[in-house]
Amino acid sequence: MGQFSISDLENLSGIKAHTIRMWEQRYGILNPERTSTNIRLYRDDDLRRLLNLAVLCGQGHRISKVAKLSEQELATAVISCSDDAHDYPRQVNALLAAMLELDEPRLHQLLSDAVRQLGFEEAIMRVVYPFLQRIGLLWQTGSVNPAQEHLVTNILRQKMMAATDALQPVQPAKARRWVLFLPEGEMHELALLFMNYALRARAHHVLYLGQNLPTRELPAVCGSYQPYAVCTVLTAVPERGQVQAFVDELAQLCPDTALVLYGPLIQAQANLTIPPQAMLPYLMTDFLALVDKLDPRAE
Asked: What is the pTM of this model?
């Protein structure tokens, strides 16, 4: 069970702390504990309720009315409320509440609605990425358990694979080629799966090698496939002190191939020596901009 300060609730819900205090005093929407120094501490149930209230108030419902709803009535109202495709904070809050409740059908519905309204890529960039960033905040407070995280990851993985399968096939002989992989021990695949989709949607050809690939396999892959670029995402592997050695190894193994290096471990390296053939997009928008500048046809 998580413990949240009022500033945590503000960051996670988008509702200002003074508004939370006012709603609490006037309408009794939350039931915080108090420390010995009279500091409010909130629990998971408080966060779930506040997220649902934020969704409904963002749709124009009056707090004086929705504060009277039970938890089940709140959840039902969130699902049935009008769905503005461009109200991204509302969608993110609804996803967070569904995740905290382990409500798989609701997660599927909310994500499917976002894709239907916005298109797959726009839904990922406008809704899913902010959602994942909020999950990161919850991890920092110890308020996401492995079951919740796995539920979200597996649903998103299914959505990404289905969207990729629905794309028109690309002929490798006519397209710019990419190898996508995660290094040995790296299992965080969502960013790489989205890169796979984005490249294929732009008529690039991708050899998707997925998780946990030993780097010693890359010379044979590059020799046979002749890619334009090798792309990887570093989230948990290698150790921070080994990132430079890993980058240097990739440059040696694939000396005639562009390298695209992405992920939190790359971003955290202040003094990384970058090989001449390497590109380091900082954000996913940077990666998309990089790909958009490239002619998808083979040179």
From this structure: 0.75
